[in-house]
Design goal:
37% of the residues lie in helices and 20% in strands. It is an alpha/beta fold. It has two domains: 3-43, no CATH class; 57-162, Nucleotidyltransferase, domain 5 (2-Layer Sandwich), CATH 3.30.420. Helix 3 (97-113) packs parallel to helix 4. The N and C termini lie far apart (64 Å).
Length: 169
Amino acid sequence: MGASVGTGGGKGDVNVELNIVPFIDLMSCLTAFLLVTAVWVNIEALNIKPKGKSRDPQQIRNEDEQVKLSILITNTRIWVGQSRINEFMPIERGTDPEAAWTTYTQTLTELKKSAFFVDRSDIEIAAESLDNAVVVYQDVIRAMEIAETIGFTDVGLTDKSGLSAPPQL
């Protein structure tokens, strides 16, 4: 930043001219970053609700009576499990990953039509890496988006130990 101090004159010359162009440049750049960030945050927001146990015994009893739908995504399979029934369906991801996602969509659609989940919208999703292979973050997001489009809008993101129906790998 620059300032121009009056030259010459006498002791009475104290006029200072500030150069505010750098301030304007900085504020215009910061405004652009703010707008881009604000739009991105609103578009790419995932609505997840962390699940946890309540201390209220009545609520614990009611939660334990319901069958819960749990999804575990690994690098080789997608496990769809139901608590209290201990029914697990492995979907092989193998060589054609799109076929696995189609099967996953069909399975969730059928479960949503079942008597256990027709009037409910809660689901638990977790991911776990096996054999030093990584589960891609985009796979978790895709599982959440498919569940939301089917009607499971109350998505809980947890780890494998937090699932109500964890499969035995």
